[in-house]
Amino acid sequence: MTDSTPRTPPAGLQRALETLATAVIHVAVVALLGLVVVQGWQVFARYVINDSPSWTEPVTLLLLSTAMSMGAAAGVHTNRHFGFFLLADHLNPLARRAVDAVVPLVVAAIGAVIAWWGWALWIDGLHIKTAGADLPQSVHYLPLSVGGALMVVFALNRLRLALQPAALEGDR
User: Where are the alpha helices (DSSP H) in the chain?
Assistant: First the structure.
């Protein structure tokens, strides 16, 4: 089924969230590319020049955490996260609308827990240095916290869209 109604450009808040989501995706892409470069250097240094650098493991963990967290947040924004969409498609319109409102609340709650505990773990390990790199041991929790906070923002926007009148169904 295709939506043949013309789309109006997103206004204000929606435009800002689209811009934020695009930036989040770009950060995830840069983190993935950095991951490839760092791991490529690790393999080259270890097997070709026989001098394995110690900084690659903590940097890899940071880049992996960043890519994963930003990708998860972008998935919430684009509504491409894990879900039971087949079940929701077979519900009556009122039940489906209720499910469409509850799901973003659950995602926002999960994001809030991730943001809170990611922040707590980041703060808790700031004074401990990582072996092999001049970074705090807890540095890979910072992207987790930021990603969780972004999940909350994007899920609350999904809730706002779910609660709008049925005329805006195509925006979900």
Answer: 12-47, 56-77, 85-89, 93-124, 141-163
CA distance 36 to 38: 6
Write out pLDDT tens, residues 76-133: 998 887 766 777 778 888 888 888 888 899 999 999 999 999 999 999 999 998 888 8
How many Å apart are CA 162 and CA 50, to the nearest integer? Answer: 56
Number of H helices, E strands in the chain: 5, 0
SS3 of residue 2 by DSSP? coil
Query: HSE-up of 96 (CA within 13 Å, CB side)?
Result: 12
Structural domain boundaries in the chain: 12-171
Any idea what the Cα angle at residue 117 is, between residues 18 and 17, rounded to 5°?
5
Q: Return the ∠ at Cα 56 (arms to 53 and 65), rounded to 5°.
A: 170
pLDDT tens for 123-164 read 999 999 888 888 898 999 999 999 999 999 999 999 988 888
The amino acid sitting at 168 is L
Phi-psi region of 98 (alpha: psi -120 to 50; beta: other; left: phi over 0): alpha
Q: How many CA atoms lie within 13 A of 129 on its CB side?
A: 5
